[in-house]
Design brief:
By secondary structure, this protein is of the alpha/beta class. It has helices spanning 12-24, 42-54, 69-75, 89-97, 113-125, 132-145; strands at 2-7, 28-31, 60-65, 83-85, 103-107. It contains 6 helices and 5 strands. Bound molecules: D-ribose.
């Protein structure tokens, strides 16, 4: 699986940690920046990762900022993105099972390191349930078509 990853300065350390973790597990990780701790603006990276996911360069994405909020707000502006801000394994599981989320957002200032890796594991090991949830995804897609 190909994963696009991005962060701002406040998520940089987790981006590096998660990138290494996923590469060791055999994922192909496409790093869209930022590439240092220098202060920058999260929408730049949210847009890059979101576009990589919808254009097929990556199968899924991960975005990290201080809270994960700015990343999720921005990524969800791109049609076809279903970015989910997850603070625990239950949210990551449901984001996949019910929402067929294609981008995981995390807050480096919110969740601890072990916890963050566990959320990543859950997000990538849980499949979409389909069924009644498919119809709801279709409704989201119809709303996107109105904009
Ligand atoms: C940066 O200080 C911080 O505002 C940003 O990383 C993020 O938390 C915004 O949602």
């Amino acid at each position: 699986m190909k994963v696009a990853i991005g962060s701002d300065h406040a998520g940089f350390e987790y981006k590096e940690m998660i990138k290494k973790y996923l590469e060791e597990k055999g994922f192909k990780v496409i790093d869209k920046g930022t590439y240092s701790n220098e202060r920058t603006d999260y929408p730049i990276y949210a847009e890059k990762v979101a576009k990589a996911v919808v254009n097929g360069e990556a199968d899924r994405g991960i975005l990290i900022c201080g809270t994960g909020i700015g990343m999720s707000i921005t990524a969800n502006k791109i049609k076809g993105v279903r970015a989910a801000l997850c603070q625990n394994d239950f949210m990551a599981k449901m984001a996949r099972k019910h929402n067929n989320s294609n981008i995981l957002c995390l807050g480096q200032r919110v969740v601890g390191t072990d916890h963050a890796l566990s959320i990543v594991d859950t997000f990538f090991s849980t499949e979409f349930e389909g069924g009644r949830h498919e119809q709801r995804i279709t409704l989201i897609t119809e709303i996107e078509g109105l904009n």
